[in-house]
């Protein structure tokens, strides 16, 4: 007699799964199907909350593909998150002199002690323009999931 795992994914579950996150055009962002599966703690922020919400209620063995509308996975793009940072501020934080180029993802220390990141868009004479939106904000995505085990 075998034991059948009938548990469902819920907040606090450790889930072992294969998953693929791709752009609408099919270009993979993350794909574990050809490698070792991932193990995630649901509710710990290891996946974006809307992606975790998709997993809730799934059972061991479930294999599904979800199409997420623009902005459904990582939010809509917010034009207020495109900001200029003075070169003086970058100097004060020891960030001038590093070899930055447009398109680079740059990490900053937050006043609260955490860290956040922005994509460098351009460098001018007195400031640099950064986009602090999540790189996948506003994108339509495909999220494929195969649940292997739930603890």
Overview of this protein structure:
Pfam families: FKBP_C. It catalyses: [protein]-peptidylproline (omega=180) = [protein]-peptidylproline (omega=0). Keywords: Isomerase, Rotamase. Its EC number is 5.2.1.8. This is Peptidyl-prolyl cis-trans isomerase. The chain has 151 residues and is mainly beta. It folds into 2 domains: 77 residues, Roll (Chitinase A, domain 3); 53 residues, Beta Barrel (Thrombin, subunit H), CATH 2.40.10.330. It has 2 helices and 9 strands, in the order βββαββαββββ. Strands 1, 2, 3, 4 and 9 form a 5-stranded antiparallel beta sheet that branches. Strands 5-8-7-6 form a 4-stranded antiparallel beta sheet. A hairpin with a 5-residue loop joins β6 and β7. The longest helix is centred in the middle third of the chain and has 7 residues. The chain is elongated. The model has no long low-confidence stretch (mean pLDDT 90).
Distance between the termini: 21 Å
Structural class: mainly beta
Query: Sheet with the most strands?
Result: 5 strands, antiparallel
Which percent bin holds the helix content? Answer: under 10%
Shape: elongated
Query: How many independent structural domains?
Result: 2
Q: Averaging pLDDT over every residue, what do you get?
A: 90
Low-confidence stretches: none
| Top CATH class of the largest domain | Alpha Beta
Spell out the helices and strands N to C.
EEEHEEHEEEE
Q: With helices defined by DSSP (H or I, 4 residues minimum), what is the helix count?
A: 2
* CATH architecture title of the largest domain: Roll
Binned strand content: 35-45%
**CATH fold name of the largest domain, please?**
Chitinase A, domain 3
| Strand elements, count | 9
Radius of gyration: 19 Å
């Amino acid at each position: 007699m075998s034991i059948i795992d009938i548990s469902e994914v819920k907040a606090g579950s450790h889930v072992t799964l294969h998953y693929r996150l791709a752009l609408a055009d099919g270009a993979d962002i993350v794909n574990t199907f050809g490698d070792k599966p991932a193990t995630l703690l649901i509710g710990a922020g290891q996946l974006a909350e809307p992606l975790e919400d998709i997993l809730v209620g799934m059972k061991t063995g479930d294999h599904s593909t979800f199409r997420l509308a623009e902005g459904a996975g990582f939010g809509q793009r917010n034009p207020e998150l495109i900001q200029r940072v003075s070169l003086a501020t970058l100097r004060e934080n020891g960030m001038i002199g590093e070899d930055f180029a447009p398109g680079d993802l740059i990490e900053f220390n937050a006043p609260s002690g955490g860290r956040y990141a922005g994509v460098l868009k351009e460098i001018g004479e007195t400031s640099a323009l950064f986009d602090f939106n999540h790189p996948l904000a506003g994108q339509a995505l495909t999220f494929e999931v195969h649940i292997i085990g739930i603890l």
